[in-house]
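Fold it.
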Amino acid sequence: MGLGFALFARPALALMDSEKAHRRALLGLRLTSFTFLGRMLLRILYKPKSLPSQKFSLDFSNPLGLAAGMDKKAEAMLGWETLGFGFIEVGGITEHEQGGNPKPRMFRSSKDRALINRMGFNNPGSKKMAEFLKKSRKPGVPLLLNVGKSKITELKEAHLDYAKTVERCEPYVDGFVINVSSPNTPNLRELQKDEDLARIIEAVKIHSGEKPVLIKIAPDLEDMQIKSIVDTARGLGCAGIVATNTTIERPNQDGMMIETGGLSGQPLRNRSTEVIRLIADHTDGKWPIIGVGGIANAEDAWEKITNGASLIQIYSALVFSGASCIKGIVNGLDKKLREAGLVSIEDAVGLARRE
């Protein structure tokens, strides 16, 4: 299976430097999924049951997706599909190529089951990304592109930066996630203000065609701010929302928790669920939510879905539990559906709100 993926499949990655481990895992997965034999082996080991649903006029084989940041450059799309993800989000991608923040910029706390990153949107830029996607085999599951703002672009020109990336990449993906909530680009979160957000959405939708555009928000906003963002985005025709990005809050000040950057993993679980429930209640469950933050197992995933998430994503769980968590989460959701006497995953969305 290759050293890189063998490590990826086990928590042994935790013994390595975070960014190096990340790169080696991606390389291993890409190499393993390159051949028919490798893909067949991955399917035998990891492929979960089917839990089909439809959202944004797209068909999902199951509700579990890969969160943005794990595969920034879309290097292992076929591998992620083979492992059993129901959809894939790649990026974030900015208009201009950029190297990101100085290293080290990824940190891991096994004790807290948490990650901190201050990557800073390191990516090849929208022009190279579009060229790569054009030449690549598109996965058979929905592919979303996370879009950010270049560091060199002034806030007042941000809408043009986002729009150019969407224009260049639109032919090759199934939808877009507007990222105005990463804590690692200076002042980016200011773009969550209504007037700035509206300008970005309007510019992006000119170039997105009929493809869905979603907003990704921070968990650190006040509840009233979240409702305002929801109203703005929904009113301008956004297809849904991703809740949530990483947090700048810390559960303690031990070890790596003193590092700056966005925190993901277990400490984010409760707040991300609170935000999902807030949005679902505010929209009466009529606006699709992708729930992300602290999902480690089927129980966490069920919590997100029953509080209003139509789809869910993981990142940290892959680091701490390996690729087997994909099958564990999806098959666990299938079991919970049967225990609840429900037929489809769509029947479970918002179940806790109706009880």
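Residues 324-339 form the longest helix (16 residues).
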